Automatic annotation (TrEMBL):
GO molecular function, one term: L-histidine N(alpha)-methyltransferase activity
Pfam families according to UniProt: Methyltransf_33
Top-rank taxon: Bacteria
Gene3D superfamilies: Vaccinia Virus protein VP39
Enzyme class, spelled out: transferase
EC number: 2.1.1.44
Keywords, sorted A to Z: Methyltransferase, Transferase
Gene: egtD
Name this polypeptide is given: L-histidine N(Alpha)-methyltransferase
Histidine-specific methyltransferase SAM-dependent domain: residues covered: 22-324
Listed transmembrane segments: none
């Protein structure tokens, strides 16, 4: 009967990671050159990201975990029993703190994790079903946007969309705007949105978090090139590129770059793409925005997502916001 408790749905017409490489062609043909952060996460990249989360300099995961450890049961008692819909559930490690709080309410309930990796979703869902006896799980394999539009009718009277880890930081202002609009549209009155955001702090702490002394972040950044080689039959040479991460104080965002050290040409055969790089060229691979809690509250409110309460850590390095439609 375990099979009854877990269902995984591959959303129709959704390739988990858009495979046609249109975005790569566009990104490398423009100026400045950019590549979308989703190309970090092949198998190697996902493992490297888990390694990043454990680095002494990379505070976000650890800090958010502390906040959840302290306040998960308070969050659960504020919302009462509800269905959790998680955007980008990954291994659901931090989510367990929330799941436990809701499981403790002693009623049958449902968790709907959404992730682009079907493999990861299958594995973690089966594991969670074993750990939480009151929980049924409906995993949706697809992108955030597509999954939000394919949500099944509610089984409980309220629902909470959960978006942790400051993954929102990868989104530009315009993309945040679109996502929040969609979330507010999909939720019904009285439903909740729980958002984890990384906050502004001294530049040195931020830059160290993205330039760790063991070079794991550099490896993670460079791995995007080997991922592209494999995916699109390319000939990027990792030894001709250097990882750089700087904090842009005007835009309040970490910017991760790959800097080209030597003039050369790269082709990605299956995309029919050839790119010339000069010796001072660079590619922007990621932005990681750092937020101001009050501004985020206002931004949420402008999308009919009204803050009920927020929580931070001692140093106010990370914030968790509970909003309601
Ligand atoms: C997964 C997007 C939240 O922006 O901090 C970690 C990814 N990049 N180190 C972040 C990341 C470099 C991470 N997010």
């Amino acid at each position: 009967n375990q099979g009854k408790k877990v269902e995984i749905k591959y959303l129709p017409n959704i390739s988990p990671i858009q495979d046609n490489g249109e975005d790569v062609i566009e990104g490398l043909s423009g100026s400045p050159k950019v590549l979308p952060p989703k190309y970090f996460y092949d198998r190697t990249g996902s493992l490297l990201f888990e390694k990043i989360c454990e680095l002494p300099e990379y505070y976000p995961t650890r800090t958010e975990t502390t906040i959840l450890t302290n306040f998960a049961s308070e969050i659960a008692s504020l919302t009462g029993i509800c269905e959790l819909v998680e955007l980008g559930s990954g291994s659901s490690t931090k989510t367990r703190l929330l799941l436990s709080a809701y499981e403790n309410m002693g009623k049958p309930w449902r968790y709907i994790p959404i992730d682009v990796s079907g493999e990861m979703l299958n594995r973690s869902s089966l594991q969670l079903a074993k750990e939480y006896s009151l929980l049924s799980i409906l995993g949706l394999v697809g992108t955030y946007e597509q999954a939000l539009w394919h949500l099944p009718p509610k089984e409980l009277s309220s629902r909470m969309v959960v978006f942790l880890g400051s993954s929102l930081g990868n989104f530009t202002g315009l993309e945040c705007d679109r996502l929040f609009t969609e979330i507010a549209e999909v939720l019904e009155e009285g439903d909740y949105f729980l958002l984890g955001v990384d906050l502004q702090k001294p530049v040195s702490i931020l830059e160290n978090a993205y330039n760790d002394s063991q070079g794991v972040t550099a490896e993670f950044n460079l791995n995007m090139l080997s991922h592209l080689n494999q995916r699109f039959d390319g000939n990027f040479r990792a030894d001709l590129w250097t990882h750089k991460a700087i904090y842009n104080q005007e835009l309040n965002q970490i910017e991760m770059y790959l800097h080209c050290d030597k003039k050369h040409q790269v082709s990605l055969k299956s995309l029919d793409l050839t790119v010339d790089f000069s010796d001072d060229d660079f590619i922007l691979t990621e932005i990681s925005r750092k937020f101001d809690l009050t501004e985020m509250e206002d931004f949420l409110q402008s999308h009919h997502l009204n803050t009920i309460q927020f929580w931070t850590d001692e140093k106010q390095w990370f914030g968790l916001i509970l909003a309601q439609v």
